[in-house]
Design goal:
The complex is a heterotrimer of chains A (289), B (155) and C (899).
Chain A: E1 3-8, H1 17-26, E2 45-52, E3 60-67, H2 75-79, E4 85-87, E5 93-95, H3 105-109, E6 116-118, E7 123-125, H4 131-135, H5 152-156, E8 162-166, H6 173-180, E9 196-199, E10 204-211, E11 224-229, E12 235-239, E13 245-251, E14 256-262, E15 269-274, E16 279-285
Parallel strand pairs in A: 1-9, 10-16
Antiparallel strand pairs in A: 1-8, 2-3, 4-5, 6-7, 10-13, 11-12, 11-14, 14-15
Chain B: H1 9-22, E1 27-29, H2 30-37, H3 46-57, E2 62-70, E3 74-81, H4 95-98, E4 104-106, E5 112-119, E6 122-129, E7 132-140, H5 145-148, E8 151-152
Antiparallel strand pairs in B: 1-3, 2-3, 4-5, 4-8, 5-6, 6-7
Chain C: E1 3-10, E2 13-20, E3 23-28, E4 30-31, E5 42-44, E6 54-56, E7 61-62, H1 71-75, E8 85-87, E9 109-111, H2 114-131, E10 137-141, H3 153-164, E11 167-170, H4 177-181, H5 184-187, H6 201-208, E12 211-215, H7 219-222, H8 232-240, E13 244-248, H9 256-259, E14 262-264, H10 271-285, H11 290-296, E15 297-298, H12 300-308, H13 319-326, H14 330-342, E16 345-349, H15 364-377, E17 386-387, E18 429-431, H16 435-441, E19 444-447, E20 462-465, E21 475-479, H17 490-498, E22 504-509, E23 521-524, E24 533-536, E25 558-561, H18 574-585, H19 588-592, H20 597-607, H21 610-613, H22 616-622, E26 624-625, H23 640-644, H24 655-658, E27 669-670, H25 674-679, E28 709-712, E29 738-741, E30 744-751, H26 753-758, E31 766-771, E32 774-782, E33 790-792, E34 837-843, H27 855-865, H28 872-877, H29 880-898
Parallel strand pairs in C: 10-11, 10-21, 11-18, 12-13, 12-16, 13-14, 15-27, 16-17, 21-22, 22-23, 28-33, 30-32
Antiparallel strand pairs in C: 1-2, 2-3, 4-7, 5-6, 8-9, 8-23, 19-20, 24-25, 25-26, 28-34, 29-30, 30-33, 31-32, 31-34
Helix pairs in contact in C: 2-18, 3-18, 10-13, 10-14, 10-15, 13-14, 16-17
Chain lengths: 289, 155, 899
């Protein structure tokens, strides 16, 4: 059995229910597995968000619920001394609130900055996967079905952006979602296996709008937009939609992309764009042949 | 901008009759007839209103009902008819015409009920005793025999 | 350490509350168990254009918004009013004069006992009644600071004041102004306050819709009012099947940024121009439902003439014209119009398809009316063609009646819940948006009867304050929440409170909000979690104004709102406070009818269908009841009866609907409004033909030279009205909400990179938002999500933190309503227009003050009650919360041992 949490970034609407439920569970309350989280200053699960795009013509946002990845080979475990960080049989990584005292190196070791330093107690703290609740036979006994027990963040998620369960059980919801969606391990964890599985965390888009000649005040629907990356040899193709808009998602980062826009009766337009960040390439006014 | 001339008594008479042949309600004012029945556009003049009021008053079955408030038109000189339609042309029940919300009804056994909601799937009421609502909520299907036996208590 | 689980409903949704040893441990969503019914199933497409071969059913949990998960914090909040308090320099002069009223907001408080506080209140009530008459007392609630049919404002509060006699303050429809004052003149529905009916449209949408027009609509933020996150999955389903979402909003709002296939950004307040240009495209290209219009529209040709430039203004409403007004490229307007007309399109404005920020602009009525007409032109009521915002219209059990908060049958002042109806003998009224004007000027006149839900004619009733033969008001009892952040021109309210005209001000609230700090006596009420109540999730009542609003939820849930913990400190339930006051006034028995709060709760079970479904004992034990939706349910699609001409079969209908007519004068879609021509022919703000008009506070105004930016302050994403942000420091750690600096949570204000650069403002800078009405310090977020001329900062700030308390000073609490105009939209349109605000923004270079400016007042009173009391800052940042819980736990266990 490997308990895990799948985080589907595409589904996350940034509603902060997970964050609030986590705070509700851990702020001011200690358990066998952790000291109390201070009222302010720590985010055991954070919704990390960034704005995507460089124009009001095409702007999106990314929302990535970010919590301890419970890595297979945790950097924090290596940084911890005297068994301060340990891994349970179910795969969850726990920081011992007593043994970890004074070990700030555990905080610094985390590649995704989800371990926090408690100044007052001088201990590192982070997500426990709500293991203390999963272990407690009384918690949620009133539901009558232990299968309904979930970490607080997952239970609170209304968007089906968070799934919890046994990754080793192919029939579990979590295994199914992990199998069907695009796996996107967080960049700082590249190469690391973890039981928290991030899905659909966006990379880069390029987008634009194609108009007929300016004086016509008309969008151009169905123009062919071809993208090509010389470095990787990959290419992409799309068409402008009913607003004349085009967009290509999931482009490789930090490459140079050549773009050609073609439509019958018009001269082709071409651009070169970098995928250092999400870009709105241009509003293109096509010129007649 | 009137589709039907109110200055031509015959044309007006004809239009009013035609409207009443389809109108299922029991209360009407000249303004409502102007807008709904005559295709009136804009506010009618005093003369036009008088002509319409005269035409309504002359219609058999319609009697002067004094001043009545309408949710749209406010307080208006009104007319009332005896016979009210309870079903549309396809035979479907018109609950709001058949049963009045907040009105009192008597059952054959003498029980007085106050209708508090009138919905297609349920009339909901409370029994009235000594002027007070008593007991639990009673549900009556509007097309049931029990509903058909209800008689409005006119104040 | 046994864990007790109770349930409740709060404005953020339904919750399960875990308590241990008399203190709240955690707050969770209600997760359904195997004894709860199956969810409804809707058969629909899995892909637009595909067969109806997929099944949709809700998650087996009742999904609250995140605000509901902070109810524990709201209970143990730092700004909780712990004890009855009396203003330190309040003098109980026998004539009501010389009471240092100018110090309201400035002076501190002292702790009082309940006896002292209530005796004073009762003496003052009697004095004022004797000196001036019962009408000299006025009282006012704000919306939704708590939930429950017994304890909510329209129930217990109304029972007390109706029995006492008072000058009622009529609410304005502050969240949907343009729809109340505009839309009924186009299609009726004044009994739904201008909003459409959306029954069963979730199924229609899932089966048929291809395009969603989300006009000034942010469903993930507004949560269907009080439906929490119950509807978010529905929009994921639509999105996943390829339905195209087009969002129209000057700010690329939080739903839009995630789900929009296209974001269209009009300059604030110009949406009516965009609507007219869409119509222009449709009329010139013949892209509308001609058969439907021929049958159901009134004076359509005249309206087309106006659109085409053949009207009196001789101005064609072309996309090019609209481009200049709105800033949206003409080509985009054409593309939008064609997409809308050539696909099955549903949509609307705001959370009930008739809300949204645009309707709270000077052009609100004209926008609402024109937008409604656009939906008419596409055959509203036909499958896939309707006003529906993707967050209402779920299947429900129409055969089950419980009674929601605005249902006349579900209030404890009224039959059948009470034995005797409480009737207010005072006829004089006041009107909320202009309450300060009335108090300060001593005279006020206005049109309208509050929400005007009982008829179009109500919009045109004339009101005068003081009413003939009546006294002016001299005592004000405020109950729950604060208007500092929700009403406009906040400083007007400050001036009102400092006026000696108000001889005595009582504030009854849970938290020490902006207005509580302006009162003479503060009465501490407890939260929902500290008292019993009963209610249905998101139900305003089947007979209420938003009839069947619980269709905004996936589950219909009636909850026994059990008491989780005892009232904290000296707080008491609102019911207790009113009952105790009534007792001291000599009519306690009449007020209670011998019932406890629990007895009142049981009355709702007895008098509704609940008693047929579950025993009282089982209901109390289980904590909630979910009526199953019958599998063979009858569909009653909103507005279908009109399109297909059969007697109206949807709830809450009117006789004329059964005749296939709308609630307009002609019973048709009025493209030229006969009701306006009849009732207000000379109104220049709201003309018989709805037209885009230059705003008195918009980019054409002279003032725009000095204040070139436009503030929009929509309903908040990170709060509910003013209820959560102030009490929940966790929220101050959400970067899109607030930034906690020097002990003060600064609100985020957003502006476009271009405008920021012109002003030398960088992301994260402290900025001053200002105009002639005041100024507010915020933290800048520089974002392409703003239309270029727009400053976006959420309204309804519960945090009001003037640097000089009690004065019209700069605010650091994010109370941006200081900047909004206090003026009504028009003489005949008594609505408010917060989203018509001009302002300028500059970088703040001076030092920042530290802390909030009321905490010392609270701390002082807390220490009077308990020398070891936890201070505000200790609760916010330190161990105050834990210490409070520890004390309560000890007390609880001691009492338990004694038993």
């Amino acid at each position: 059995m490997r308990l895990g949490i799948a985080v589907n970034s595409q589904r996350c609407m940034g509603c902060w229910c997970c964050f609030t439920a986590c705070k509700d569970e851990h702020c001011g309350f200690a358990s066998k597995l952790s000291a109390a989280q201070p009222m302010m200053g720590q985010k055991w699960i954070d919704v990390r968000e960034w704005e995507r795009g460089d124009s009001s013509r095409h702007v999106k946002s990314a929302s990535v619920p970010t919590l301890c990845a419970h890595c297979k080979d945790p950097a924090c475990l290596k940084a911890g001394k005297d068994g301060a960080v340990y891994k349970r049989d179910d795969g969850l990584v726990i920081i011992d609130p007593e043994k970890s005292k004074g070990q700030k190196a555990i905080v610094d070791a985390c590649p995704i900055k989800v371990v926090f330093w408690n100044e007052e107690l001088e201990i590192p703290q982070k997500c426990t996967g709500c293991a203390e609740l999963l272990d407690d036979p009384e918690y949620l006994a009133y539901l009558g079905d232990p299968a309904l027990k979930q970490p607080r963040c997952v239970e609170a998620c209304p968007n089906q952006a968070l799934f919890f369960g046994d990754l080793d059980d192919p029939n579990s919801d979590i295994a199914k979602i992990v199998a069907s969606e695009r796996a996107t391990q967080l960049e700082p964890l590249a190469g690391q296996e973890s039981v928290v599985k991030w899905l659909n965390v966006p990379t880069i888009f390029l987008a634009g709008t194609v108009y007929q000649p300016k004086e016509l005040d008309e969008v151009l629907i169905g123009a062919k937009v071809k993208l090509k990356c010389k470095e990787t040899g990959e290419s992409w193709e799309t068409e402008t939609n009913y607003f004349g808009d085009w967009e290509v998602e999931w482009l490789p980062k930090n490459k140079t992309i050549d773009i050609v826009i073609e439509a019958d009766g018009y001269k082709a337009a071409s651009y070169t764009a970098k995928t250092d960040a999400d870009h709105y390439v241009d509003t293109t006014y096509m010129v007649r042949d | 901008m009137v589709r039907c001339s109110v200055t031509d008594p015959n044309a007006l008479r004809h239009a009013v009759d035609k409207y009443f042949s389809e109108f299922p309600g029991e209360i009407i004012c000249a303004l409502q007839l102007w807008y709904e029945g005559l295709g009136g556009q804009g506010v009618p003049t005093a003369d036009e209103l008088t002509a319409i009021q005269d035409a309504i008053a002359a219609t058999p079955g319609w009697k002067d009902a004094g001043e009545v408030r309408y949710e749209k038109f406010g307080v208006q000189k009104s007319y009332k008819c005896e016979a009210m339609k309870t079903h549309d042309s396809k035979g479907r029940i018109m609950i709001q015409h058949t049963f009045k919300r907040d009105a009192l009804y008597k059952e054959p056994n003498g029980t007085i009920l106050k209708l508090v909601t009138t919905e297609l799937w349920n009339l909901r009421c409370f029994e009235i005793k000594n002027g007070k609502m008593t007991g639990g909520m009673i549900k009556i299907h509007p097309e049931s025999d029990r509903a058909k036996a209800l008689v409005e208590v006119k104040s | 350490m046994a864990e007790k689980v109770t349930h409740s409903i709060v404005v953020g949704g339904a919750i399960a509350i875990h308590t241990q040893d008399g203190v709240i441990r955690r707050v969770r969503p209600i997760v359904l168990d195997n004894n709860d019914p199956k969810g409804w199933v809707i058969k629909a497409r899995s892909k637009v254009g595909g067969p109806q071969d997929a099944e949709y059913t809700p998650n087996r949990k009742v999904q609250p918004a995140f605000i509901a998960l902070t109810e524990k914090n709201r209970a143990y909040a730092y700004d909780r009013i712990r004890y009855p308090m009396i203003r330190e320099d309040f003098v109980e002069t026998p004539d009501g004069k010389n009471r240092n009223t100018e110090n309201r907001g400035i002076s501190g408080y002292r702790r009082a006992s309940w006896d002292e506080a209530l005796d004073l209140v009762v003496r003052e009530i009697k004095r004022i009644q004797t000196q001036y008459g019962p009408e000299a007392i006025t009282a006012m609630t704000s919306s939704h600071h708590s939930w429950g049919n017994v304890g909510y404002k329209i129930s217990t509060f109304a029972r007390f004041f109706r029995m006492l006699g008072y000058t009622e303050v009529k609410d304005n429809p502050d969240s949907w102004e343009g729809f109340t004052w505009g839309a009924p003149h186009t299609y009726g529905y004044y009994w739904r306050l201008g909003c459409p009916e959306t029954f069963d449209l979730l199924e229609d949408g899932l089966q048929n819709v291809e395009t969603m027009i989300m006009w000034s609509h942010d469903p993930d933020t507004t949560h269907g009012g009080y439906a929490g996150n119950e509807s978010v999955m529905w929009r994921h389903w639509l999105d996943d099947m390829g339905v195209q979402f087009i969002y129209i909003d000057p700010y690329n709002n939080f739903s839009s940024i995630k789900q929009a296939d296209k974001w269209i950004a009009p300059r604030p307040g110009t949406d009516a121009a965009l609507a007219e240009a869409i119509a222009h495209v449709w009329v010139t290209e013949g892209l509308y439902d001609k058969e439907y219009i021929a049958k159901h529209a009134h004076r359509f040709e005249e309206w087309c003439d106006y659109i085409l430039g053949k009207g009196t203004d001789k101005l064609a409403k072309t996309p090019k014209w609209a481009e200049i007004e709105t800033g949206i490229p003409a080509a985009d307007i054409k593309a939008l119009a064609r997409r809308w007309a050539t696909t099955k399109t549903m949509g609307g404005s705001g959370m009930r398809a008739g809300f949204g920020g645009v309707c709270r602009t000077v052009n609100g009525t004209e926008f609402a009316r024109t937008m409604v007409l656009l939906f008419a032109m596409q055959g509203m009521g036909k499958p896939g063609q309707n006003m529906w915002g993707g967050n209402t219209g779920a299947p429900m059990d129409y055969d089950f009646w419980f009674g929601g908060y605005s249902d006349p049958l579900a209030m404890i002042w009224n039959e059948p819940i009470a034995d005797n109806v409480a009737v207010n003998p005072v006829m004089q009224k006041l009107y909320r948006p202009n309450l300060p004007d009335a108090i300060l000027d001593g005279h006020y006149e206005w049109y309208g009867e509050g929400f005007c839900g009982q008829g179009i004619d109500q919009e045109f009733t004339q009101n005068v304050y003081p009413a003939p033969g009546c006294s002016k008001v001299h005592m004000f009892w405020r109950y729950g929440g604060t208007f500092m952040g929700t009403m406009l021109d906040t400083n007007k309210w400050v001036r009102m409170y400092k006026s000696p005209e108000l001889e005595f001000v009582v504030n009854q609230d849970i938290h020490f909000h902006g207005e509580a700090r302006m009162s003479d006596v503060v009465l501490p009420a407890c939260t929902n979690l500290e008292r019993v109540d009963i209610g249905e999730l998101c139900s305003s009542g089947n007979g209420g104004y938003q009839s069947h609003s619980q269709t905004g939820c996936s589950w219909q849930v009636v909850v026994f709102q059990d008491k989780a913990i005892e009232p904290l400190w000296d707080s008491q339930s609102d019911y207790w406070i009113f009952a105790e006051t009534a007792k001291r006034l000599g009519w306690g028995e009449k007020f209670t009818e011998g019932r406890t709060e629990l007895d009142w709760c049981k009355r709702y079970w007895e008098k509704s269908d609940l008693c047929e479904r579950i025993s009282w004992e089982d209901f109390m034990k289980k904590g909630y009841y979910i009526p199953p939706v019958p599998e063979d349910r009858v569909r009653r699609y909103g507005f279908r009866w009109f399109a297909e001409e059969f007697p109206c079969d949807t709830p809450n209908h009117k006789p004329f609907q059964e005749e296939g007519k709308l609630g307009t004068f002609t019973g048709k879609w009025e493209f030229v409004s006969e009701s306006l021509q009849y009732w207000a022919p000379h109104d220049e703000v709201r003309t018989p033909i709805a037209t885009y008009k230059h705003s008195w506070e918009g980019h054409h105004a002279i003032k725009a030279k000095k204040y070139p930016l436009q503030l929009i302050s929509p309903h908040p994403r990170f709060d509910y009205h003013t209820q959560h942000n102030s009490s929940t420091p966790w929220f101050w750690e959400i970067p899109e909400n607030r930034v906690y600096i020097n002990g003060n949570p600064y609100l985020v204000a957003r502006l476009h990179p271009k405008k920021a650069e012109e002003r030398g403002i960088k992301d994260g800078d402290i900025i001053e938002l200002y105009n002639e009405r005041g100024s507010v310090l915020c933290v800048a977020v520089i974002s392409y999500r703003c239309e270029e001329n727009t400053v976006h900062a959420y309204g309804s700030s519960g945090i009001y933190n003037p640097v000089t308390p009690g004065e019209e000073s700069m605010d650091i609490g994010g109370c941006v309503n200081i900047l909004t105009p206090g003026r009504l939209i028009g003489d005949y349109v008594p609505g408010m227009a917060p989203n018509s605000t001009l302002l300028e923004v500059r970088k703040w270079e001076d030092e920042l003050p530290s802390g909030q400016f009321f905490e010392d007042k609270l701390d002082k009173v807390a220490k009077e009650g308990d020398p070891n009391a936890e201070t505000c800052i200790e609760i916010i940042e330190g161990h105050g919360f834990e210490k409070i819980q520890e004390k309560v736990r000890k007390n609880y266990l001691k009492k338990g041992a004694a038993v």
